[in-house]
Amino acid sequence: MSATIYLEGAARGPDSKDLQIRCREGFRKLLEKCDYKGRMPRLFACGSRDGAFDDFKIALAAKRASDYVAMWIDSEDPLADLEATWAHLTHRDKWMQPAGATDDQVLLMTTCMETLFAADHAALADHFGAKLQVSALPPLFQLENRERHDVQDRLFHATRHCTNPYAKGTRSFELLAKLTPSTLSGRLPSFARTRRILDQKL
Fold it and tell me: H or E element: which one contains 49?
């Protein structure tokens, strides 16, 4: 049995190869902290959500029955039902559920990667230092119900005076590697779901 996860998060462009490496590294370190070292899935950075979906469909069609193939992407919007991932993607993105695909093959960052960061104040303080404005971060209560632009804007605002203000790309993947899984699981139901599924599949 093999496991492969297609990741959203490294935009294509002149620096895309370096960003893809950093994207995989950030997710790899986070998963190692989840105690998956020694049974890690293969990780592929695919750029956009559409890119991750396209790569997922190709891998799904070619996989063996025992293989686990998944994509880990932003939900973009809050979920009506945490477990009904394909219903969410069909409604929001007009993505048709491929034949043989199941809900547990869709791992979601709800509503975006920045939600993971906003959930872990200790990691933010360690990464950004004393000038982090914690009061500007979104409230932790029902964090996954907040619109992605609100979460992103608040993170930008909270770090604006830091020597290394938040930016998508290299800095986001560096921060991803510093997150504490138990903190994320306690505050983000979607991350707890991802860990539950990977505990079963890896």
Answer: helix 49-62
| Residues 58, 63, 65, 66, CA torsion sign | negative
Residue 112's SS3 state is: coil
Q: How many residues does the chain have?
A: 202
Show the domain range for 120. 3-201
155, 3 contact by CB (below 8 A) = no
139: left (phi over 0), alpha (psi -120 to 50) or beta: beta
DSSP 126-188: HHH-TT--GGGSPPSTTGGGS-HHHHHHHHHHHTTTSSS---TTHHHHHHHTT--HHHHHHH-
Single pTM value for the model: 0.95
| pLDDT tens-digit profile, the chain (202 residues) | 799 999 998 665 545 788 889 999 999 999 999 999 999 999 999 989 999 999 999 999 999 999 999 999 999 999 999 999 999 999 999 999 999 999 999 999 999 999 999 999 999 999 999 999 999 999 999 999 999 999 999 999 999 999 999 988 878 999 999 999 999 999 999 999 999 999 999 9
